[in-house]
Amino acid sequence: MAGFWYTEKQTDNFGITLKVNKTLHTEQTDFQLLEMAETEEWGNMLFLDGMVMTSERDEFVYHEMVAHVPLFTHPNPENVLVVGGGDGGVIREVLKHPQVKKATLVDIDGKVIEYSKKYLPTIAGKLEDARVEVMVGDGFLHIAESENAYDVIMVDSTEPVGPAVNLFTKGFYAGISKALKEDGIFVAQSDNPWFKADLIRQVQKDVKEIFPITKLYTANIPTYPSGLWAFTIGSKKYDPLAVKEERFHDIDTKYYTKELHNASFVLPKFVKDLTEE
Amino acid sequence: MAGFWYTEKQTDNFGITLKVNKTLHTEQTDFQLLEMAETEEWGNMLFLDGMVMTSERDEFVYHEMVAHVPLFTHPNPENVLVVGGGDGGVIREVLKHPQVKKATLVDIDGKVIEYSKKYLPTIAGKLEDARVEVMVGDGFLHIAESENAYDVIMVDSTEPVGPAVNLFTKGFYAGISKALKEDGIFVAQSDNPWFKADLIRQVQKDVKEIFPITKLYTANIPTYPSGLWAFTIGSKKYDPLAVKEERFHDIDTKYYTKELHNASFVLPKFVKDLTEE
């Protein structure tokens, strides 16, 4: 179809609406409804089960903040795993770190990878890099089968509905801990504090039981519900708020800075309260 | 009317949509179209010329961040002026500071004050306080007629269309400087960096020519365009990033904290770039 307004209901009673120039691809994959569209405001966009996953215009925020916060926190992140993230945006940011020797991507839906390469080339363009291994498979199982393998694990999943529901369980966080090396770090997207306060509270509680250093940070993503996105970081050894100055090196970013690295952990009071309950 | 979805086009090609239970009041005032509505997600809301001004659920962010950043920066803010802000939210926050002896509100549209008192009582409820003087009149003229009068001036205006267009000019900032005491501070809402980059760039440039200390800070407001709102602060003497620890005192807030005071000035790289051009 061409020339219409698409509305995503982000809650039962609130949503965003945006002008679509044309639909580029629509397909019910084995796992979810995949839609690619060319929009007037945000460039090409990927939707899964009707929810905005990424847009060419604002994708940099999410991808930079998932990747750079844990990667600068770890002193030598050589071996990195991305669970989900088939659009390739997190991988693109991971590769900006010269310490990374290998980045493995495990996405359950090969169609997301295929159509991101086709319609989101500025996001997915680094998936063919020599340092990257792309696997189409179940990230939950891959984690369960991995032991002492990764320095940093990033969970770039959809919401806890559909294929991602296992990725928001305490069993998954325990698996992540086992899959990480003894000084490993993981980060997971954790939805937003305005509409999903209970989710953030529960994830913080669960992760704290497994990781000695558990924190929440946020970033502004205009096409995501409420515009304020939360990320949970769990670390075995390194504190994301105690990164040595010399660890930071220049990378090309549009959102992340080393100053913002620290500031993103300073939470609005009502969000801070969620992490302390 | 009752039981419909209202859509605010925040740009030509993007907007928010929300479920309205019922319209409470609709009136073309002498200055703008005033609408009050009861919404399912955000509680009662005020719209001016079709744009969201405030909602009961997320108003605390804007009002706390306008008021507390300059009021904690100034060591002794006794005399405070709010230009616009007829909903009373900024005044409510100003009154949390015991140093404030008098808070003057000048809004051009008495109907905003009248209907905010009626339908947004948790926001407007402090307009009758003994320390508050409410004036219905032109804020631009009030500023022009004031000299060496205020410690802190807060510009809580609509967008630079309609009645607020004069409030985004260099002449207005010069007037504010004159209306402030020799160590005065002002803050003005400055829209958002995603859709109004040029505005932010221009305001920063204009204010810098008049105020030796000019900075930008942001806050997350879900019902405002992009979810990331910007505020320009201009100060003659006191640096908002050099507030002495003992200056902070406990106040009841839901968004502002003294840590967030500082963190809100740490900008995403693309926003920081706007302030340095």
UniProtKB/TrEMBL annotation, chains A, B:
GO BP annotations, alphabetical order: spermidine biosynthetic process
Main EC class the enzyme belongs to: transferase
PROSITE patterns according to UniProt: PABS_1, PABS_2
Substrates-to-products reaction catalysed: S-adenosyl 3-(methylsulfanyl)propylamine + putrescine = S-methyl-5'-thioadenosine + spermidine + H(+)
EC number(s) on file: 2.5.1.16
Positions with a binding annotation for S-methyl-5'-thioadenosine: Q32, D107, D138, G139, P163
Pathway where this protein functions: Amine and polyamine biosynthesis; spermidine biosynthesis; spermidine from putrescine: step 1/1
GO molecular function annotation: spermidine synthase activity
CDD domains: AdoMet_MTases
The keyword Transferase appears for this protein: yes
Domain (PABS): residue spans on this chain: 3-236
Residues involved in spermidine binding: H63, D87, D156, S157, T158, E159
Active site: D156
InterPro entries for this protein: PABS, PABS_CS, SAM-dependent_MTases_sf, Spermi_synthase, Spermidine_synt_N, Spermidine_synt_N_sf
Keywords recorded for this protein, A-Z: Cytoplasm, Polyamine biosynthesis, Spermidine biosynthesis, Transferase
GO cellular component, one term: cytosol
Classification via NCBIfam families: PRK00811.1 (NF002010), speE (TIGR00417)
Record function comment: Catalyzes the irreversible transfer of a propylamine group from the amino donor S-adenosylmethioninamine (decarboxy-AdoMet) to putrescine (1,4-diaminobutane) to yield spermidine.
HAMAP family listed in its UniProt record: Spermidine_synth
Family: Belongs to the spermidine/spermine synthase family.
Quaternary structure and interacting proteins, as annotated: Homodimer or homotetramer.
Name of protein: Polyamine aminopropyltransferase
Species this protein is from: Planococcus lenghuensis
